[in-house]
Design a protein that fits this description.
alpha/beta, 8 helices, 242 residues
């Protein structure tokens, strides 16, 4: 199997439109050009009440075209519940991507803070297997809800709940990979959270899911700078390692 994760691209970069990033859209574009990137996906956090999305999409569009650089606009929305509903407002149809994020645990009645799920697991209120099954099912459902989906930092929530990605069964990863393929989703290999694991990346590649690299940058100094992604890629595809 010959698979590559292009490192001259960055598919998850935040700007000052988000409430926790510092760089402007233009600063991110300049950084991408300085580092010789070919693709830059500008993605900002949304909630159902985010009213600024049309302004964000217009601001990204105003930066185009950029010679030698394909600039995309995306929104990042967390999974809300077990069915895969997304915390996303109206007016996102113009986005090039929807980044699906596991910021909180998608429970039956809505999102639960990871610390709360950690306590529920520790107390025996819920088992690790039930939590993993719920996360897999909600993520699969979310991909059906979104147009042009991209799985952002898949499984990053697991350590926050006291779990490890190695606890996710191969069968569950294979199922999710097949669902991603059917949904036309991309799998992001995330620098900031160093996830998903090489095992998951390889399983998705074997299922035919396109892989993209992302920094999850909140500062333009980090755009297109990879260390964790390189290690994951080398472990997932040792036959391609230099």
């Amino acid at each position: 199997m010959t698979v590559q994760i292009p490192l001259d691209e960055d598919h998850h970069v935040h700007s000052a439109f988000s409430d926790d990033a510092v760089s402007t859209l233009a600063e991110n574009v300049d950084a991408a050009r300085d580092r010789g990137l070919r693709v830059l996906c500008l993605a900002d956090h949304v909630r159902r009440d985010s009213a600024w999305v049309p302004d964000f999409l217009s601001a990204v569009d105003a930066l185009r075209p950029v010679p030698g650089l394909d600039v995309l606009a995306a929104v990042e929305a967390k999974i809300l519940d077990r069915t895969g509903q997304l915390d996303m407002p109206e007016g996102t149809a113009g986005a090039d991507r929807v980044l699906i994020a596991d910021h909180q645990f998608p429970a039956d009645l809505g999102p639960v803070n990871p610390a709360g799920m950690h306590d529920a697991i520790a107390s025996g209120e819920v088992t690790e297997e039930e939590v993993i099954d719920g996360l897999i099912g909600a993520t699969a459902g979310a991909m059906k809800m979104a147009a042009r989906p991209q799985l952002a930092h898949l499984f990053s929530i697991l350590p926050k709940m006291g779990l490890d990605e190695s606890s996710v069964p191969d069968q569950a990863i294979g199922h999710l990979a097949r669902q991603a393929r059917l949904a036309g989703a991309l799998l992001e290999v995330n620098e900031k959270w160093a996830c998903p694991s090489a095992r998951t990346v390889r399983a998705f590649a074997e299922a035919g899911v396109p892989l993209v690299a992302s920094t999850d940058s909140h500062d333009c100094r980090d755009v297109g700078v990879y260390a964790s992604v390189r290690r994951i890629a080398d472990a997932a595809f040792p036959d391609l390692a230099p």
